[in-house]
Amino acid sequence: MTPPAAAAGPARAGGLLDPPLTSREAELLTLTLEVLRETGYDKLTVDQVVARAHASKTTVYRRWPSKAELVCAAFAYHVRLGATPDTGSLRGDLLALAEMITESAGRYAAVVAGILAAGQRSPRLRQLLVGDLYRDRRAQVLTVLHRAAGRGEITAEAISEEIWDVLPCYLSYRIIQHDRPVTPATLRALVDELLIPSLTRLTPPGSAPARQLIADTQARQL
User: What does the pLDDT read at residue 13?
Assistant: First the structure.
């Protein structure tokens, strides 16, 4: 049986980005990432952010009362800015999403590594990462998978909490932890040889969209 969390479909992430941001708050988050890339997490201060934004600390603290919350909100905002791909096919959506994740992980690899290290010392920072940043990425992946189920490419039963994080976690781990390059061939192998076979394993043989998806995937492997 599909776990209820996956079966219910992706839910909008809450927390650090809700209620909706004002234009000034969105600007602050963008500038936070800009400063973060220059300083790293440990050396970043709220003073640096407000100086770059020509804002007051009150503007920051009334919404995000700590550096950890500000930084996690900035990353969650960055993730949410990326529109979930909708190419019309599961394979196309997975490849497009993989490219988005690869670009983001590559751009912020050093920063994320620093945040993960700091998360070992700060339970609050780790809680925020899981609660907001990862939740937004989960919503993107599940949106792609549920669209595919709606088109008949996969069954709803194939969508589970054990499958959604394979794509973002593998790419992030490869880039951030091992500094290994991710090429278009890497993405195709991940999608065609791992994800699509796993997601179509429960699809009835008579499903025309599923047959087409599998046939297209196998043709590209030849």
Answer: 40
Tokens 């699809």 found at? 203
Half-sphere exposure of 104 (CA within 13 A, CB side): 24
CATH number at 15-81:
1.10.10
What's the one-letter identity of residue 141?
A: V
Across the chain, the runs of DSSP E, i.e. the strands, are: none
Residue in 214, 168, 161 with CA at minimum distance from that of residue 187: 168
b/e code 82-107 from CB counts within 10 Å (16+ = b): bebbeeebbbebbbbbbebbbebbee
User: Which residue ranges in the chain fall short of pLDDT 50?
Assistant: 1-14
pTM over 0.85: no
User: For domain 85-222, which CATH number applies: 1.10.357, 1.10.490, 2.60.40, 3.10.180?
Assistant: 1.10.357
Q: What residue ranges do the domains of the chain occupy?
A: 15-81, 85-222
Nearest CA to 166 out of 109, 106, 75, 94 is that of 94
